[in-house]
Amino acid sequence: MKLYYSPGACSLSPHIALSESGLPFELVKVDIRAKKLENGDDYTQINPKGSVPALGLDDGTVLTEGPAIVQMIADKVGGGKLAPENGTAERYRLQEWLNFISTDLHKSFGPLFSPVLGDDAKQFFKDRIAKYLAYADKQLAGKDYLMGSSFTVADGYLFVILSWAERMKIDTSGFPNLNAFKARVAARPKVQQALQSEGLLQKA
């Protein structure tokens, strides 16, 4: 498998999932602005959407959209290691989390990366993000991870979003459960491995 990624982007979520999975994979860096691979090839020939992540499969097909990719990775591992088994109530709960992170949290960050949006508008989206983070903080009370005591692909995705919150200087000091969660995920060896691979964490 080949994961097409951009350092620190939402593609870090499936990168974490792949690292945790133990499955063999190759990283291919993408310049999102130029829509080019490092060798100069046109990335839109692989993913016409021009966005990351994209996962090149062994049969030559390409899967896009992070929530779909991470569930495929989890299902390739099987055994409920990174996601509850298909058809279970817990799997639907995982999908609920993935949809919340994708449509509410992730999408709310988009305007913050805009160079033309004014500060007042950006503050509106920061306030919205804080409201969603408050919800996640409450749901994490008494839990190690979103689904309870076991790490899942939803946790990797939320971790990426929390790293964006730090970058955008969104105050999370009032969310002790989220901050403990972020530190817990960051300490996982496979997460550190993914961060190092993307140049986001210095090697000790």
Automatic annotation (TrEMBL):
UniProt keyword terms in alphabetical order: Transferase
Protein EC: 2.5.1.18
Protein name, entry field: Glutathione transferase GstA
CDD domains found in the cross-reference section: GST_C_Beta, GST_N_Beta
InterPro entries (alphabetical): Glutathione-S-Trfase_C-like, Glutathione-S-Trfase_C_sf, Glutathione_S-Trfase, Glutathione_S-Trfase_N, GST_C, Thioredoxin-like_sf
Entry keyword annotation includes Transferase: yes
GO molecular function: glutathione transferase activity
Top-level EC class as recorded in UniProt: transferase
Entries under Gene3D superfamilies matching the protein: 1.20.1050.10, Glutaredoxin (3.40.30.10)
Sequence ranges assigned to domain GST N-terminal in this UniProt record: 1-81
PROSITE patterns noted in UniProt: GST_CTER, GST_NTER
Pfam family, one: GST_C_3
Domain GST C-terminal positions: 87-204
